[in-house]
Amino acid sequence: MVEYAAANINPDMSFLEMLDVVNEGLIAKGQEPIAFDSDCREGICGTCSLVINGVAHGGQKGTTACQLHLRHFKDGETITIEPWRARAFPVLKDLVTDRGAFDRIIQAGGFVSVNTGGTPDANALPIAKVDSDSAMDAAQCIGCGACVAACKNASAMLFVSAKVSHLSLLPQGQIERERRVAHMVKQMDAEGFGNCTVTGSCEAVCPKEISLSFIARMNREYGRALLKGAK
Ligand code: SF4
Ligand code: FES
Q1: I need a surface site. Which of 8, 143, 149, 159 has the fewest CB within 10 A?
Q2: Which of 17, 36, 47, 63 to mutate to test the pocket of ligand 2 (most atoms within 8 A of CB)?
C-alpha cells in the first residue's frame, strides 16, 4: 500500500476525478501516476473496478465507482483503494486487473448466433411482460466483476446467471439455450472462479442490483440442459 495526499478536492468530484487530480499532481512532480481502469464514467461500461474502504465500488447502493462522489467521504479521511482480488482476475498494475476471463465466458456462449431476420416491429413478437421485465433486469449487468471481488469464493455465478438469463428468457435465445448455459458454466469453471455458497455478498455490492434469484434460475437452466444432453 502506498499513501498519497489528495489536495484541492471538491466534494462534488467523482471518485475517478479525484484520482485524476492526484495523478496530475504526481505527473507534475515527475512521479509515476496510479494506474486505474475507466471508460464511460457514467455507470454503464463496468470498467471501473475499485475496492474502496474494503467494499467493491465503495458501498453506495446501486452505484459504480465512477458514479461515487467525494461528498460521501469525510474531509481528511484516509481512503483505502485496492484492485479486485480474485485468482481469475490477475492484477496487471496498481488498480488494474485483467478481466479477460469474463470475455472468454461470453465467447463460450453469451450470444445469439442464429439468423433472426430483420428487425421486427416490437409488437410482432409477443413476449410475456413478466419475461421481458426479467430479461431487462438481467441485461443490466455491466460485467464489472464486483460480484467476484466481493465473494469469499470468488464466484462468478451472479455475472454468468445474468447473461444466461437475459438470453434464455427471450425467443431469440431459445435455439442455443441448452448449449449456451452448458458452455458458459464450463468456461466459468475452467477460469478458476469458485462456487456459490449463497452468502449474497455479490448482490449486496452489484451496482446494477442484479438479484440472487438469477443464480437459482441459472441452476435450473443448467439442470435442464444436462437432462437434454447438452455438453
Ligand atoms: S452481476 Fe453486478 S457486480 Fe456482477 S458483473 Fe454484473 S453488474 Fe457487475
Ligand atoms: S467507468 Fe464505466 S461503469 Fe465506471
Answers
A1: 8
A2: 47
Q: What residue has cell string 505527473? A: 27
pLDDT per position as a tens digit, 3-16: 999 998 999 999 99
Q: Cell digits for 117?
A: 431476420
Q: Which amino acid is at 221?
A: E
Cell reading at 70: 467525494
pLDDT digits (tens, 9 = 90+) for 155-209: 999 999 999 999 999 999 999 999 999 999 999 999 999 999 999 999 999 999 9
